[in-house]
Every structure is written in C-alpha cells, then in structure tokens.
TrEMBL record, chain A:
Family, per entry: Belongs to the eukaryotic RPB7/RPC8 RNA polymerase subunit family.
Intracellular or extracellular location(s): Nucleus
Glycoprotein found in the keyword field: no
Listed Pfam families: RNA_pol_Rbc25 (PF08292), SHS2_Rpb7-N (PF03876)
Protein name (record): DNA-directed RNA polymerase subunit
Species the sequence originates in: Ascodesmis nigricans
TrEMBL record, chain B:
Gene3D superfamilies, A to Z: 1.20.1250.40
Domain RNA polymerase Rpb4/RPC9 core: 1-130
Keyword Transcription part of the UniProt annotation: yes
Example of a GO biological process term: transcription initiation at RNA polymerase III promoter
InterPro entries to which the protein is assigned, alphabetical: HRDC-like_sf (IPR010997), RNA_pol_Rpb4/RPC9_core (IPR006590), Rpb4/RPC9 (IPR005574), Rpb4/RPC9_sf (IPR038324), RPC9 (IPR038846)
Protein name, as recorded: DNA-directed RNA polymerase III subunit RPC9
Family the UniProt entry places it in: Belongs to the eukaryotic RPC9 RNA polymerase subunit family.
SMART domains linked: RPOL4c (SM00657)
C-alpha cells in the first residue's frame, strides 16, 4: 500500500526559522509542501521518511532566506495492481460503488467488477448481491475488501481566470484515482467472509 | 523538484504506522522543550498523519510488533511465496482460505490443500489477530 520515493528539491528556510535545528526546519518545510498532496505519476505523499543529503545553504540577498538543495525520501501511498485492500463504502450509484479509506477518497468499483449476480436498488441507493437466494446488502459505511485493478493520474492544470467563478470546483477530476474490483471469493463486504474461531466455515450474514 | 526514484522500496503498514507514531512523539517532545509556536505543524501534515494513523490502527498493523513480523517471515521462508504476497499477508492478515486465495496468485495450482492449511496456520500462529471493530453490526 505504501512505498518509499526519493526526491530532490530546493527548500527555502526563512530567517525566522534559523533558530530551529536545520534538519527540523527542513523537515517542516518539506512536510508543508508535500503532505497530503498527490505528485503526478508518483502517488499521494504522506510525510517525510528521512533526509539523505543536504547541500550548503545559499543565502538569498533579498529576503535573507537560506536556499538548500535537499535529497530526501517520502512515504507515499500507491497500491500496486492486484493489491488487496480494505475500505469503507462512501456512496453507491448505478455506475458502481465509491470506496474511501480514512485518508483517500477516490476509489471506485465499477458495477461490472462486482459479483455477477449483483443488482442496484434505486430506492435505497445500494448494491445487492444475490447469492443462492440470499440477499446481501452493500450498505454505506460497511467495510469492503477489494483488489486494485488500475490507477489514473490526472495532471491538474490551473483553471483559466475566465472560468474560475462559474465553473464548480467539484467537476475537476481527482488528481489520483483508483479503479478496483470485488468479484472473487473472499472479496466484497468483510462481514460476508468472517469465520468466527468457534464456528467452522460459516458465511457471516 | 525532481523525482529521483519513484519506487525505492515498499513499506509494510506496520512500518508506516510506527514511523507516524515516532514522528508524533518527536513533535510532542519538541513541543514541551520549546514554545507552542515553534511546535505548530502545517495543517495538511496534521490531517494526513491523523487519518493514516486512524486507518492503520484499525488494520492488522495496529496489533503487530517487529518480533511478530520477523517470526512470521522466518516461518514462511520455507514456502515459495512472492515478496508482494508476503507483504499483503502481513498487511491484511487473512483469516480464511478464501482470503488467502485472493492474496496468493494461482494458489490451487501452486499449493495443495494441506500446504494451504499449513500456510493459514502459520499466519494465525505468528501474526496477531486484527483489532476488533468498535461497533458490532447486528450482533451475530
């Protein structure tokens, strides 16, 4: 689910932070820039893992800030293709199910990647799996296990000024999106497959 | 900004959780030592660290220790499993053969039933159970 990625970047430390230890000031600046942000074709950056190399600081003659070239590694969220993950159902539509983890919102399971006998209940906005006459509801906020199939990075271009006011921000595609599937035995709602230690091989339902 | 290596290596959920906990402890210690203003961290950092920590604490990583993972890896070394499969087993801690089948590719072709049961036993023996979910739905 998480990987380590190495970057090199120019970090600017303002004079007011000169009282901090250099590594702390660098860490704060790097985290401020990268935490919870998606880097195109790399993934969702979580936080600094460690600093590998720091160059001598060049002082900027205008502001007096130190410009430092830093090589560092970040913890990045980027599940690989085929990875199994657990998340919660955030919403359902006739196109499929939206799943979120606490820190990532854009996971989508298209309806074609659910179990074959699934149907959508328009009134309640839920997908239902019909298995041998038993109906299993895929309710909101339920824990669901799925497999990552594809990832999609979207390069976010700035909105041109003439479109800024009328266009709703929500129309923009998310910078990082995961497409998943849940159609193998063991996947779908976690509660369907839990075996209690006392009972043997019973599908919870 | 330049990406040197987008994939230096993979981290287990346990390692990420421990890293976040250690980082938070460092910040808390620094907060005690210096002024409150110096200890203020960026909002995006606080948010993502809290959310990742919440998520991981409720997965198998929340109950694991470094010793558990070492013992598990030693016990599994005699079986031919891919690195990615071992990582997923540690992260997801499967409870049943069905879950193991999702993680291990072509499990029926590579391992016979007895070996499959043996693999599941190693998982249950060395990796602690996932933390219990706080609310019981429909209490069954």
């Amino acid at each position: 689910m998480f990987i380590l990625s190495s970057f090199v970047d120019l970090v600017v430390i303002d004079p007011e932070d000169f009282s901090k230890r250099t590594v702390d000031a660098l860490e704060d600046q790097i985290n401020k820039k990268y935490a919870n942000k998606v880097v195109y074709n790399v993934g969702l950056c979580i936080c600094l893992f460690d600093i590998l190399k720091v160059s001598e600081g060049m002082i900027d003659h205008g502001s007096g800030s130190a410009h430092v070239n830093v090589e560092f590694r970040l913890v990045v969220f980027r599940p690989f293709k085929g990875e199994i993950m657990t998340g919660r159902i955030s919403s359902s539509s006739m196109h499929g199910i939206n799943v979120r983890t606490d820190f990532f919102e854009d996971i989508f399971i298209p309806h074609t990647s659910l179990f074959d006998d699934s149907s959508f209940d328009v009134k309640e906005n839920v997908w239902i799996w019909n298995n041998d006459g038993n109906e299993f509801y895929m309710d909101k906020n339920e824990l669901i296990r799925f497999r990552i199939e594809e990832e999609a990075f979207e390069d976010q271009l700035p909105i041109p000024p003439h479109m800024q006011d009328d266009r709703v921000e929500a129309e923009r595609k998310p910078p990082y999106r995961l497409i998943a599937s849940a159609q193998q035995a063991g996947m779908g709602l976690v509660s369907w497959w839990t075996e209690d230690e006392e009972e043997d091989g019973e599908e919870g339902g | 900004m330049k990406v040197l290596n987008p994939r230096v290596g993979m981290l287990s959920n346990y390692e990420v959780l421990q890293h976040i906990i250690a980082t938070k402890e460092r910040y808390a210690a620094a907060h005690l030592a210096s002024s409150a203003a110096a200890a203020m961290k960026a909002e995006n950092l606080e948010t993502v660290m809290r959310e990742v920590k919440d998520y991981l604490s409720h997965t198998a990583a929340g109950t694991q220790s470094a010793a558990d993972i070492d013992n598990f890896m030693t016990a599994m070394s005699s079986h031919a499993l891919e690195k990615a499969e071992l990582l997923q087993i540690i992260n997801e801690r499967p409870d049943s053969i069905a879950e193991l089948d999702c993680i291990i590719e072509e499990m029926d072709a590579r391992f016979d039933e007895n070996t499959q049961a043996e693999l599941l036993d190693i998982v249950k023996k060395w990796l602690p159970a996932k933390p219990k979910e706080p609310e019981q739905v429909n209490g069954d």
